[in-house]
Structures are given as structure tokens and as C-alpha cells.
Amino acid sequence: MAKREASGARRIGTSETDRLLVSVAAGSQDAFSRLYDAAAGPIYGIACRVLQDPAHAEEVTQEVMLEVWQSAPRYRPESGHAMTWMLTIAHHRAVDSVRTLQRSAERERAVSQHESTTAFDDVVDAVEALGECEQVRSCLKDLKPELRQPVVLAYYEGLTHTEIASRLSLPLGTVKSRLRRALTRLRNCLGAPP
């Protein structure tokens, strides 16, 4: 849409564009219409170069022109030309759109990977996991309380080694060595290779 409309637009000078944008800031719809005709083509061009997709470039052009209408009062002619200001907005908007599209594609890839790696038989997996949990609980009960406590705090309550040391009023080194001994005994109890 922006490309077709802009192809028939007449070229106007930078000072005229600056004046139009100041008029747009004052609320002139006629000035916005003329500014749109002058700026939509170059904005579309930048968006198309960044996005490499004409349909997305048209969307970005429309978004930029809406933003120009809404934020025209913030434009200061002494800071630079109106066209430069609008093209900067267009470039930022197009780059943001590329990033959004990339994040969306990454999410879709992650979801499809997750879906393709789901278990073959959820019921069997659940039963096996339950059996493993029971075995772990049984092995935990066999540990001495001084070895069981750090394991429970670390793996069931999610505490760090430092937090465990604080909770049990033990030196950090003692907590680490108890955890190491407990995990070795659990591994042996569960029949895991060393």
C-alpha cells in the first residue's frame, strides 16, 4: 500500500518537509496527508532493505507513519531535518521487527524440538519415574540424618551450599563434604556406576 501511494508522490525539499512536520505537530491533517505522500516511499524503502520482505515493510511503514502522527510534537527542527528524523524512526522500527520475527522463529523451533522429543509412552515413563522416586526415598531413609539433611535441603528445597551451611549452623566445607559422601552412598544404593 505504502509503495503504490508513494510512487506517485511528488518530491519536496527538506525545509518543506520540516514545515509539514511542524504543522502535523499542530494537528493539521492536510499537512499529514502531504507529509505521508512525501515520506512513505523512503520509509518503505528503508523498511524493505532491513526486513527483506515487502509485506512486513508495508506494515512497518504504516506503523512509522502512525508514530510520526502521534509523536510529531516531540520533533524539534533545530535537532535535524524531518526526513532524517522519520527515517531514523523507520530504521529502528524495522530492526525491532526483525528481532521480533527472529525471537518468534526461535520460539517456534524450540517448541517443535520439544514436541519432537516427547516420551514414547507417557504412562510407562510416569511409572518408571514413580519407581525411581520410591527407590530414591528408600535410599535416603538409609542415610544417617547428618548426611540426609543436606541432601534434602539442596535437592528438595533448592537451597545453595551457603544457605544449607547457614541453616544447619555448619561450616561450608562440612556441608560440601557431607553432600559428597551422601551422594556417593545414594549412587551406590541406587546401583549407579561410580
Automatic annotation (TrEMBL):
An MF annotation (GO) of this entry: DNA binding
GO terms for biological process, alphabetical: DNA-templated transcription initiation
Domain of life: Bacteria
Protein name (database record): ECF RNA polymerase sigma factor SigK
Keywords on record: Sigma factor, Transcription, Transcription regulation
Chain ranges of the RNA polymerase sigma-70 region domain: 35-103
Residue stretches making up the RNA polymerase sigma factor 70 region 4 type domain: 134-186
Annotated NCBIfam families: PRK09646.1 (NF007228), sigma70-ECF (TIGR02937)
Lineage per the UniProt record: Bacteria, Bacillati, Actinomycetota, Actinomycetes, Kitasatosporales
Pfam family name, one: Sigma70_r2
Protein species of origin: Streptomyces sp. NBC_00180
InterPro entries, per database record: RNA_pol_sigma-70-like (IPR039425), RNA_pol_sigma-70_dom (IPR014284), RNA_pol_sigma70_r2 (IPR007627), RNA_pol_sigma70_r4_t2 (IPR013249), RNA_pol_sigma_r2 (IPR013325), RNA_pol_sigma_r3/r4-like (IPR013324), WH-like_DNA-bd_sf (IPR036388)
Family: Belongs to the sigma-70 factor family. ECF subfamily.
